[in-house]
Amino acid sequence: MKIAISGKGGSGKTTISATLIRLIARRGLSVLAIDGDPNPNLIQALGVGPGVEAESVPRSVVERREDETGATRHVLTRSIADIVSQYGMKAPDGVTVLVGTKVDHAGAG
């Protein structure tokens, strides 16, 4: 199952996501949560603790490649298992969290 939460700023996306994530995990299902917000706060909303930050997944895990027809695609340079193993952080209720690439400075997005 894949669930994506989106909406305008300040609408409660992180709070709703954290609640759903923990409820699903408490039912015994394996949960990988990905925080794609440029200002990631999902780890704190899940209860990891104040001031704790996960290492964000670097842009180098995705590469732009051209196939034999000339179409351009984005592909992973490493397996999902490797990415989760290196950059995933454990949260309460057995949830694993990945923090997407952060915007480092203006103009970097």
Order of helices and strands: HEHEEHEE
Rounded to the nearest angstrom, the distance between the terminal CA atoms is 29 Å
Strand count, sense and closure of the main sheet? 3 strands, mixed
Into which percent range does the helicity of residues fall?
A: 10-25%
Side-by-side strand order of the widest sheet: 1-5-4
What integer value in Å does the Rg equal?
A: 15 Å
Provide an overview of this structure.
It is built from three helices and five strands; from the N terminus they run αβαββαββ. It has helices at residues 13-26, 42-45, 80-87, and strands at 32-35, 62-66, 72-76, 89-90, 96-99. Helix content is 24%, strand content 18%. The model has no long low-confidence stretch (mean pLDDT 89). By secondary structure, it is α+β, with helices and mostly antiparallel strands. It has one domain (13-99). It has a three-stranded mixed beta sheet with strand order 1-5-4, with no helix packed on it.
